[in-house]
Each structure stands twice: as structure tokens, then as C-alpha cells.
Amino acid sequence: MIELKNNPANNFFLLAGPCVIEGEEMAMRIAERIVKITDTLQIPYVFKGSYRKANRSRLDSFTGIGDEKALKVLQKVHQTFGIPTVTDIHAATETDMAAEYVDILQIPAFLCRQTDLLVAAAKTGKTVNIKKGQFLSPMAMQFAADKIVEAGNNNVMLTERGTTFGYQDLVVDYRSIPEMQSFGFPVILDVTHSLQQPNQTSGVTGGMPQLIETIAKAGIAVGADGVFIETHENPAVAKSDGANMLQLDLLEELLTKLVRIREAINS
């Protein structure tokens, strides 16, 4: 498993950053802010940013600034701040390219059963974070994790991100966290994607960011190993998933509350 800064603090760890890399300057500013916050709170931190968005509702949606350009931004974040980075991959042909630049390869929820993608990710030797499909039970994720392990890689993380609840909503079943932890891997709660409202008639995914704190607190209370939060300086102008992202200015207060909950549990 990757080395995480601040790990001796026995805290939850954090995967956070913008939904997609919109440019180098914005990524560096966001990373710098979060590094300062997490260093203060002793939270192990992984910078998150997709180098390309392959799953969009509409053809005219923003997909990225170019694969190599965005991956080099992720590499610069790692080199500048000394923190691990994570990005989504979408096809087996992308794994080796992405693995050159980032520390964790993330399997999107819709693709969590794609055997060729999982095996290719495993064979890079990188840590693989598999998001639970919105259509799967938590126990079914054992088979996704097994594909990574049987391909020779024990560095697996699993992420809960809500379950389909009708056409336009998701619900978080917090039993998923201890159930997936029983497999022996760290389990992360994806707070912001759990609050998406997909399949809107506008073709743009909606969200309920006002419930970010509620979902996050509950996740820490039931023992999630990590939390995943997409954040942006101004979600209203974000090029992807702005409707469910956290305003960056609100992150420190939220994380402070989560640390207090974790401390109470540990005591």
C-alpha cells in the first residue's frame, strides 16, 4: 500500500481535489490549500483529479485538457507537495500510461466489474481503488477485489458511493462500510458522489451539496477508513460535477468536525 503522510496520527485518510483537472494553476492552488489543512489536522492526504472524464451525459460536456497534459499536472502535484495522487482510468489500454504519473489507479463505479480493466490495473503494481457500482451489493465487491489480488496485487481499496434509488437519486447504506471492511481492505466513503442526482432532464447531473456534512459525519461515525470529497474553489463554474462538489472554503471546518468524531471513536 502507498505511504501516507501523517499516517501515525491514527486518523481517517482523505482523497480530495477537483473532479477533473481543468488546468495546472487551479490544481496547484487547490492542492496547496488542502495540504495546509491536512497537515494542521494530521490527516493523511491523497490529491484527486481525473485526467479525463469519459462518462458524461452529453457529447458537448467538458472531458479534459488533454491526457498527457493533465497527467503531468498530477505528477507535478506529487513532486511539489510530496503527496500521493489518484486518477480514474477507463480502459485497459490506459493503465500503463496513467501508472507512469500517479500513485493510485481508480476504477469508476460503472466499470467495477470489467475484468480486463481490473487485471490491467493490478498488473501495474499500483494501489487500485475500486468504486462500488451503484447497482451492486457491498458483498459483491469481494469478487472485484479478488480479481486484483488474483492478478498478483494485494494493494486494494474499496469505495462506497451510494446505491441507485430510483432513476434520479442515490442512497448510502452505511452497512456497506463494515461489510466491505470484512474483506480485509481499507474502505472509503465517497461523500460527494453519494449526493449526485443523475439522469436529470437537462442532461447535467444534479446534486445535494447541503448534505455533504451529514453524509461525511455518518461515514466517520461508522468507521470508514477514508473519505473522498471533490472540492473546487467555485463549484458554480466547475467544468464537471459542480452540482455536488464542496466549496473549498468550507473544507477546513468540515474536516475539523470529522477529526473530532474520529477522536471520540478512538477514545
TrEMBL record:
<keyword id="KW-0963">Cytoplasm</keyword>
<comment type="similarity">
    <text>Belongs to the KdsA family.</text>
</comment>
<dbReference type="GO" id="GO:0009103">
    <property type="term" value="P:lipopolysaccharide biosynthetic process"/>
</dbReference>
<protein>
    <recommendedName>
        <fullName>3-deoxy-8-phosphooctulonate synthase</fullName>
        <ecNumber>2.5.1.55</ecNumber>
    </recommendedName>
</protein>
<comment type="pathway">
    <text>Carbohydrate biosynthesis; 3-deoxy-D-manno-octulosonate biosynthesis; 3-deoxy-D-manno-octulosonate from D-ribulose 5-phosphate: step 2/3.</text>
</comment>
<dbReference type="GO" id="GO:0005737">
    <property type="term" value="C:cytoplasm"/>
</dbReference>
<comment type="pathway">
    <text>Bacterial outer membrane biogenesis; lipopolysaccharide biosynthesis.</text>
</comment>
<dbReference type="Pfam" id="PF00793">
    <property type="entry name" value="DAHP_synth_1"/>
</dbReference>
<dbReference type="InterPro" id="IPR013785">
    <property type="entry name" value="Aldolase_TIM"/>
</dbReference>
<dbReference type="GO" id="GO:0008676">
    <property type="term" value="F:3-deoxy-8-phosphooctulonate synthase activity"/>
</dbReference>
<dbReference type="InterPro" id="IPR006218">
    <property type="entry name" value="DAHP1/KDSA"/>
</dbReference>
<feature type="domain" description="DAHP synthetase I/KDSA">
    <location>
        <begin position="10"/>
        <end position="265"/>
    </location>
</feature>
<keyword id="KW-0808">Transferase</keyword>
<dbReference type="InterPro" id="IPR006269">
    <property type="entry name" value="KDO8P_synthase"/>
</dbReference>
